[in-house]
Amino acid sequence: KYKMHSSPEDINGWKGAYFDGPYANDGTPTAFFSPDDPSMWVANEFTLVLFFKADQSLTQEGHPPAALIWMPSDEPPNSLNYPSIGIWYQDNQMHFGAGLDGGTELFEVTMEWDWRMGDVNVSNPGSDREPWDFVGMTFSQEGGNSVLKVYTKRFKVINGEVILLDVQDDDFASGVNAPGPIIKTQEGVSHGAIVTKVDYGDYHLCDYDWFFKGKMDRSGLYNYALTADEIDAYFWNNVITSSQVTYIRD
177: left (phi > 0), else alpha (psi -120 to 50), else beta? Predict the structure, then answer.
């Protein structure tokens, strides 16, 4: 499945990829689109994993929604108002959603997120000291129901050591009884915004909306639903080890 990796800044931080709102200093969007590939096709089951930290400016009154990851439900600009799979911030909550097959509804889990926001932007040297949030989002069929689950961890990296932080008892949430499967993921994926128009000649010239501000790293998609234990093992064994924290490379 697709993966987005970056590299650390130093052993007290973890660099990640900055997304600084609509446009960078050179006028280009701070978002990117990856075209469709069969390796990204999922429908009956999936797991989406992501490390990120969100900037507190997204909480300002009147701020539009902000998409971290968006897999369009149809070829932009014909996409429905919801994604095949998506994570976005809106109205003081983080939304973890999947568009259901047939295009009839959105199946989602939401979590209060404002208390997690920090000063995360390219002009703040302290951004790398802000805590990271890890999420694992799974979709599966259980007992005739479609089940969407979200797992979270919150942590800092200090002197190469991972320090888990309190997540106010909301590190797991689930939804059930939705008709599945989801809309098949065949239209690529965008990071840092929703893609509203694809330029197939140059993916850097795509049009976007719902811009995210913050940092992201190590997103990944699997075509099956990881268990809670597997997600925990992924977090600790595949990503968060002292050598990985210090030496992650693209």
Answer: left
pLDDT, position 245: 36
| Other residues' Cβ atoms within 10 Å of the Cβ of residue 206 | 21
SS3 call for 64:
coil
The model's pTM is 0.87
Taking CA atoms, 67 is separated from 47, 123, 142, 174, 232, in Å, by 18, 21, 28, 20, 25
Q: How far apart are CA 199 and CA 32, in angstroms?
A: 12
Phi/psi for 198 (5° steps) reads: -100, 130
Q: Measure the CA–CA gap between 53 and 89, rounded to whole angstroms.
A: 12
Q: What is the largest CA-CA distance in the chain?
A: 52
Helix (H) or strand (E) holding 196: strand 194-197
User: Within the chain, which residues score under 50 in pLDDT?
Assistant: 1-13, 241-250
Q: Beta partners for 225?
A: none
Q: Which two tokens stand for residue 116?
A: 């997690």
Cα within 13 Å of Cα(98), Cβ side? 29
Strand partners, 221: 48
DSSP 188: -
